[in-house]
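Example (one chain per record):
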Amino acid sequence: MISIVQNFICTQPARLKLIEREIGKMAEVFRDYPFYINYNTTENYEEVKSLYENNVKNLTFNNDLTRDWSKVTLDLVNLVETEYLIVLCEDFEYRIDYEGWKKIEAEIVENNVKYMPIGRLWKYTTQEYHGGYTEGDKLWFYKAKDSPGSSLSTDAFYETHLFKMKLLEVPSHENEGYRFPKHLPHHYEETFWEEKNNAVRILGEMMCAIPKDIILMHEQEQTETTINK
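Predicted structure:
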């Protein structure tokens, strides 16, 4: 039903320690799913590969060093055989367990959700946004045209076809001005940005969701933007 896709590097000791601490939790929460991973550097390769092999049951682990996040991620997505996928950064603390995630999964399927951001959501789960949502049990629902977010996220649940089509679209925007180089996931998010009228809202009536509670907490000070260029 769902696959996990990750394309990342980990060159900082603090981030490696975070992966060591959280990978068992991640593997347990998503234990039913195949994982498609690309590690985009040789630094700490053996350590990270070993952590994944020792914790994840159904694993494809690549070491494609191409400095193009969208292209390499597309190569992973082309391996995915499930209807849905979750694209994830590696530096999350997990605030949810397996049973809690299965309740969310059931609600996603029941409501035909095609897109759900799952990282850095504290702003959009506050009461000031609730008026724009339809309430579920574990999720808030909204149509894409009413999205409160600023871009398509690289930490999100997607219908696989939707994410694949967006990755294929990235090269057509190469002549646009970018703040972030294309080896960072932020380049994808900047491509599909509401200020360019090219993010979630153009997807119209498509059903989206957002968790009511924070299920993943990102290490804000340890991001690729600041330390892993």
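Caption: The longest helix spans residues 13-29.
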